């Protein structure tokens, strides 16, 4: 190479749209009370920690994942109890499943549709796969705009419709009848060629209802519907296990794009251990639901603060000045999520994770002092 010739820039091989993207941001929580990521605040009791440690120590980490992962799939199938003829596939968290579904549906002209504000990975998964993404704003009280959603389905004929149940970051559990009509419309696009619906139930442990109940009641209406869940909110955010439920013939096709061995033997063992102690995690979820109710009541008593109803382990709250409140809370050692710039409907909103009683008291004190 001529020393006077500029060296070629390796970034030229990176897609320009990727270079223009913002990476998914994870806030630095060092030394902070971390209430920004909807994590379960409860740790395992010492006896369970020791038992899990023994289990993990015996795992054959010199081997690729095998039969134990199949046992996890069977255990999750039994836990979720979908109708006959349904199966599941595993993902390295829900994020990977979102990417895999987009990859499998990447045919010319395919698009993804979702309400906004919603989980950012729906749009990011579409962009990374080169699919069009169409967002439909919610109403002012964070409900589905049925007319606008039906119009968007008819116009764009999306390959995938995402409906979070309940929604992130609003915590809303949308109207069942409206969702039913959207599912029907998505399965019967004008001109034929219906699309898929992904019911994202990441926050299912904290919600009053699960869409799987509707699937069991009328499986014939849900052949194009997938139910996606994660064990992150169950209490295993660090384990990275997601799973996708759907008719066996549909899952069989989607599973072809899954990387081999995408779930480690250690993660699978952790998940099996948790399911074997499901009553412990159910008690934790019940405690979080109780604390959520108390937190909403306390927030409503603060002047200038408006909390919104939530069926998740988070509460969306509108304050007079979100950036000021966020920075004030951070200075007082409490980290929450400032979502005020995510969408116009979220102006001056913060998203607060529901913690333990002690953590919530500290969060409330920091918010009150920061208003």
- What is the CATH-assigned architecture of the largest domain? 3-Layer(aba) Sandwich
Envelope shape: globular
Kindly report how far apart the N and C termini lie. 61 Å
Measured on Cα atoms, how large is the radius of gyration? 22 Å
Structural class by SSE content: alpha/beta
Strand segment count: 13
Under CATH, the topology of the largest domain is which? Aspartate Aminotransferase, domain 2
Residue share in helix: 40-55%
Mean pLDDT level = 95
| DSSP summary: helix tally | 14
Order of strands, main sheet, comes to 2-8-7-6-5-3-4
Low-pLDDT parts are: none
Identify the CATH homologous superfamily of the largest domain: Type I PLP-dependent aspartate aminotransferase-like (Major domain)
Quickly name the level 1 CATH class of the largest domain. Answer: Alpha Beta
Indicate the proportion of strand residues: 15-25%
**How many domain units?**
2
- Give, in order, the helices and strands: HEHHEHEHEHEHEHEHEHHHEEHEEEH
Characterize the main sheet.
7 strands, mixed
Explain what the structure shows.
- The chain starts with 15 loop residues before the first helix and ends with a helix.
- The longest helix has 23 residues, at 278-300.
- Helix 6 packs parallel to helix 7 and helix 13 packs across helix 14 (357-370).
- The protein is of the alpha/beta class and 371 residues long.
- It has 2 domains: 10-46 and 279-370, Aspartate Aminotransferase, domain 1 (Alpha-Beta Complex), CATH 3.90.1150.10; 60-277, 3-Layer(aba) Sandwich (Aspartate Aminotransferase, domain 2), CATH 3.40.640.
- It has helices at 16-19, 46-57, 67-80, 93-104, 120-129, 146-156, 176-187, 212-217, 232-236, 248-254, 265-276, 278-300, 322-331, 357-370; strands at residues 33-34, 86-91, 111-116, 132-137, 160-164, 196-200, 225-230, 242-247, 306-307, 314-318, 334-335, 337-338, 349-353.
- The mean pLDDT is 95.
- It is built from 14 helices and 13 strands.
């Amino acid at each position: 190479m001529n020393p006077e010739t500029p060296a070629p820039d390796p970034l030229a091989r990176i897609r320009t749209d990727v270079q223009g993207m913002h990476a998914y941001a994870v806030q630095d929580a060092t030394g902070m009370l971390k209430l920004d990521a909807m994590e379960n605040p409860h740790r395992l009791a010492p006896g369970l920690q020791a038992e899990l440690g023994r289990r993990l120590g015996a795992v054959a980490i010199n081997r690729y994942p095998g039969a134990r992962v199949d046992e996890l799939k069977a255990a999750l199938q039994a836990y979720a109890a979908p109708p006959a003829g349904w199966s599941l596939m595993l993902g390295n968290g829900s994020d990977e499943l979102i990417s895999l579904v987009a990859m499998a549906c990447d045919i010319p002209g395919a698009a993804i549709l979702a309400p906004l504000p919603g989980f950012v990975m729906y749009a990011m998964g579409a962009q990374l796969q080169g699919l069009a993404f169409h967002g439909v704003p919610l109403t002012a009280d964070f409900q589905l705009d049925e007319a606008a959603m039906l119009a968007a389905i008819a116009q764009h004929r999306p390959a995938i419709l995402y409906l979070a149940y309940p929604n992130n970051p609003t915590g809303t559990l949308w109207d069942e009848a409206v969702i039913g009509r959207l599912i029907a419309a998505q399965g019967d696009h004008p001109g034929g060629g219906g699309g898929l619906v992904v019911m994202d139930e990441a926050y299912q442990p904290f919600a009053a209802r699960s869409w799987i109940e509707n699937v069991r009641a009328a499986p014939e209406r849900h052949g194009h519907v997938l139910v996606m869940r994660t064990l992150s909110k169950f209490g295993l955010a660090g384990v990275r296990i997601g799973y996708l439920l759907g008719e066996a013939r549909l899952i069989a096709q989607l599973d072809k794009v899954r990387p081999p061995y995408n779930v480690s033997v250690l993660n699978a063992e952790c998940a099996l251990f948790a399911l074997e102690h499901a009553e412990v995690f159910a008690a934790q979820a019940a405690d979080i639901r109780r604390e959520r109710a108390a937190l909403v009541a306390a927030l409503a008593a603060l002047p200038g603060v408006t909390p919104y109803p939530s069926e998740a382990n988070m509460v969306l709250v509108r304050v007079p000045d979100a950036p000021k409140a966020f920075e004030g809370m951070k200075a007082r050692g409490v980290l929450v999520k400032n979502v005020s710039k995510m969408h116009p409907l979220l102006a001056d909103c913060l998203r607060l994770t529901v913690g333990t009683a002690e953590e919530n008291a500290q969060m409330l004190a920091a918010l009150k002092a920061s208003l």
